[in-house]
Amino acid sequence: MFSTVLPDVLIQGWALQLSPELASRAQFGWTISVHIIFASLSVGLAPFIVYFTWKDVRTDDERFTRLRSFWVKVFAAGFVMGTVTGIPMSFQFGTNFPQFAEVAGELIGGPLAFEAKMAFFLEAVFLGVLLFGQERVSDRTYILSSVLVGVGAWLSAFWILIVNAWMQTPQGFEMITRNGMEVAKLTDPLAAFFTPRMPWMYVHMVNASVISVALLVAGVSAYIVWKKRDAAAWNTALKLAVIILLVTAPLQAVHGDAYGRHVADTQPQKFAAMEAHYDTGTADLHLLAFPKSIDAITDPKAENLFTVSLPGVGSFLATGGDFDAEVLGLNEYEENPPVAIVFWSFRFMVGLGFLFIGLALWGGYLIYNGRLSESSRFLKTMIAASPLGYAALLTGWYVTEIGRQPWVIQGELRTSEAVSSTLSGTEATLTLVGFVVIYIGLILVALHVLRWLVEDELSELGVRASDDDRWYGPVPKVSDDD
Amino acid sequence: MTELVLLVDAYLVDALPEIWFGAVMFALAMYVVLDGFDFGIGMLYATRDDEHEKETLLTAFGPVWDANEVWVVAFGTMLLAAFPRVYSRVLADHYLLALGFVLALLFRGLGPEMREQRDDERWKRYWDYSFIGGSFLAPLLFGTLAGRWIFDAPTLSLPALLTGVGLVTVSVATGAAFLTAKTRPRLASDLRTYGIIATLAYLIGVIALLTTVVVTDAGGAAETVLSLPVGAIVVLSVVAGGGGSVLALRGEYRAWLVSALGLPALLSLLVALLLYPNIYPPTGLTVREAVVSPLALNLVTILGFPALLLVLWYFKFLYGVFSGPIEGEGYKN
């Protein structure tokens, strides 16, 4: 085994070693947090790419040539990052959580295989055409390639969320014994694919991806417009992004509200954790919560928070109309998810969601007055807001995934039972450290690439990058000595 | 109604588990053949100093590598869908090799893509290292993992390491054949030499591997190795490798490419023959014992096989668009 070759003592000596379970969970959580940014970038950017490509090829409008060329570059870099960070995800089901893969194999194997065959290939093949093939295929095939890349991204999300939704609200199976192990046997494919959670999750996630990309597009456009007010293409892009936000941001709030009710129905423990609701009884809705002490941050409970609450509205939401309804509290359960992470993540996500609506309305008002590119305050705000869509998206997923703990398959298999029994703490810690270091590097590279693309665009528009915008990497510009 | 019952209680055709074993091995073959020449391009890239030649190699690699790499995902997920125990155990039992392999893929994939982003000598050089290192380590680790899988051998043992080296050399051979068919005469004749050496090294490696297996009876595979089908594969490999080298020397690069791609395909067939009827020797499970229930397998068959045919069509289209030699600045414009 490899562990005999590796300097076991080294890691143990530094007291860095984590338990296999903790290291595996941290590793999966960390790697998916990075992957999901790139995956949702593909999903959210796809409609923009299709639109820009279609306008570019059909109208020969220089603005759209510029926008297509810029955003296809972003898409390509994001797609490569998505591929290289996505492959470790599917491997970790086997390397770190083999009992999960085996127990759920019949249920998750099909959708994951369909994702590869129906979605991933489609996206990868036609992205090759989109990036390198414009002179080699007809206009129609070229536009079609952009559409197929987009379809691939959306289908990819579809199959992956079938798997995730099944883990939240599993159905369509029975437990049997195979080769000495209790595993789930598929009994009803339609029920297993289209679980109660699936449509909620798909709409919420795709819309979140579009919102995140709209904020990114708005932020980049605002920056370029701020530097050069008459950049026609980027004024168009900014306006487009604001219009898309005007539709998607309110939709997310309305949809999210109904989604919350569905979670209360299907995963009451998670709902209780989202509201830090410990005692069974009427639940209030905490619109805003402020910790009274440090303890209240790490262990939020209604009594140690200053809250702005709507009495009984938690009950009203959970049941869809009854203010006095009894909502199960966390004290009813033997083992609970980490309430603090779930509670604060949920508030962070919802708060950002309302901020996005505000930004959209502000932008809409400026469009109405024809002053969108004139308000420096708005432009600066949008620049600052450009990464916030991803912050909301990530915290939303933390609510979903951490809120499901201690279960990996709700009510069927605990995460602790899913972790590899042959994995040593040394191996798990080693790979965790590797992934953390490499992925931090990856994120830094991605941010630099985005920045250089923006700088190149500015210099093409005739804006000189000021000296303090220069890249200060570890690399001197001139080096003759090596 | 009776049809529905049939779907639930019995496999669509009686041999469906075996067909799925074949399908999984087919995905493996597609991966080893297609990403194999990508790895080969990456390793041959290390021999190029001239910026223009480097660009030519990257142009050959650019539009196809990502789609090629997806075959490893197809292979893994098809294995999971049909044989979940095998997928779980193979990956869990080879933890560091498996994750080392995906990290090698990460560096391989990022290299060329990131290199293009900045016109800076050192930046480009670091991403060149990433591309070359990843392209070497990925087939080495994947092959070593496969060797452990098939022969139930430790990482640092001849059967495992020779499988790893075999995959590295065959990748160089196919990479060279792919590039010579796509580049100008001077570069092509240069790469051809590497290709022929790699082909010979590969053939020696395979024969050494099989000899080791017969002598040590690794994974109890000695008997299978001495059987007629395995003998036939060895003979065919020698013919394809030797004949391919002659074709290469004659400058018939397209024909060489075809025979060179035959080598990793034959290697995958060899893997299938060595395993069957078992599927992961340490578990002692046969294909029939490890397979999922009829309904699940029928479902992935009905939905998956048409999808697989469609994928093959995409590849025909992709390689059609990017066929022929690379001229000047390459495929771009």
Automatic annotation (TrEMBL), chain A:
<feature type="transmembrane region" description="Helical">
    <location>
        <begin position="202"/>
        <end position="225"/>
    </location>
</feature>
<dbReference type="GO" id="GO:0005886">
    <property type="term" value="C:plasma membrane"/>
</dbReference>
<keyword id="KW-0408">Iron</keyword>
<keyword id="KW-0479">Metal-binding</keyword>
<keyword id="KW-1003">Cell membrane</keyword>
<keyword id="KW-0472">Membrane</keyword>
<keyword id="KW-0812">Transmembrane</keyword>
<dbReference type="InterPro" id="IPR002585">
    <property type="entry name" value="Cyt-d_ubiquinol_oxidase_su_1"/>
</dbReference>
<feature type="transmembrane region" description="Helical">
    <location>
        <begin position="70"/>
        <end position="91"/>
    </location>
</feature>
<keyword id="KW-0249">Electron transport</keyword>
<feature type="transmembrane region" description="Helical">
    <location>
        <begin position="430"/>
        <end position="454"/>
    </location>
</feature>
<feature type="transmembrane region" description="Helical">
    <location>
        <begin position="341"/>
        <end position="366"/>
    </location>
</feature>
<dbReference type="GO" id="GO:0019646">
    <property type="term" value="P:aerobic electron transport chain"/>
</dbReference>
<dbReference type="GO" id="GO:0046872">
    <property type="term" value="F:metal ion binding"/>
</dbReference>
<feature type="transmembrane region" description="Helical">
    <location>
        <begin position="28"/>
        <end position="50"/>
    </location>
</feature>
<keyword id="KW-0349">Heme</keyword>
<keyword id="KW-1133">Transmembrane helix</keyword>
<dbReference type="GO" id="GO:0020037">
    <property type="term" value="F:heme binding"/>
</dbReference>
<dbReference type="Pfam" id="PF01654">
    <property type="entry name" value="Cyt_bd_oxida_I"/>
</dbReference>
<dbReference type="GO" id="GO:0070069">
    <property type="term" value="C:cytochrome complex"/>
</dbReference>
<keyword id="KW-0813">Transport</keyword>
<feature type="transmembrane region" description="Helical">
    <location>
        <begin position="144"/>
        <end position="167"/>
    </location>
</feature>
Automatic annotation (TrEMBL), chain B:
<dbReference type="InterPro" id="IPR003317">
    <property type="entry name" value="Cyt-d_oxidase_su2"/>
</dbReference>
<keyword id="KW-1003">Cell membrane</keyword>
<feature type="transmembrane region" description="Helical">
    <location>
        <begin position="20"/>
        <end position="45"/>
    </location>
</feature>
<dbReference type="Pfam" id="PF02322">
    <property type="entry name" value="Cyt_bd_oxida_II"/>
</dbReference>
<feature type="transmembrane region" description="Helical">
    <location>
        <begin position="193"/>
        <end position="214"/>
    </location>
</feature>
<keyword id="KW-0812">Transmembrane</keyword>
<dbReference type="GO" id="GO:0005886">
    <property type="term" value="C:plasma membrane"/>
</dbReference>
<protein>
    <submittedName>
        <fullName>Cytochrome d ubiquinol oxidase subunit II</fullName>
    </submittedName>
</protein>
<feature type="transmembrane region" description="Helical">
    <location>
        <begin position="131"/>
        <end position="151"/>
    </location>
</feature>
<feature type="transmembrane region" description="Helical">
    <location>
        <begin position="296"/>
        <end position="315"/>
    </location>
</feature>
<feature type="transmembrane region" description="Helical">
    <location>
        <begin position="57"/>
        <end position="83"/>
    </location>
</feature>
<keyword id="KW-1133">Transmembrane helix</keyword>
<keyword id="KW-0472">Membrane</keyword>
<feature type="transmembrane region" description="Helical">
    <location>
        <begin position="256"/>
        <end position="276"/>
    </location>
</feature>
<feature type="transmembrane region" description="Helical">
    <location>
        <begin position="157"/>
        <end position="181"/>
    </location>
</feature>
<feature type="transmembrane region" description="Helical">
    <location>
        <begin position="226"/>
        <end position="249"/>
    </location>
</feature>
<feature type="transmembrane region" description="Helical">
    <location>
        <begin position="95"/>
        <end position="111"/>
    </location>
</feature>
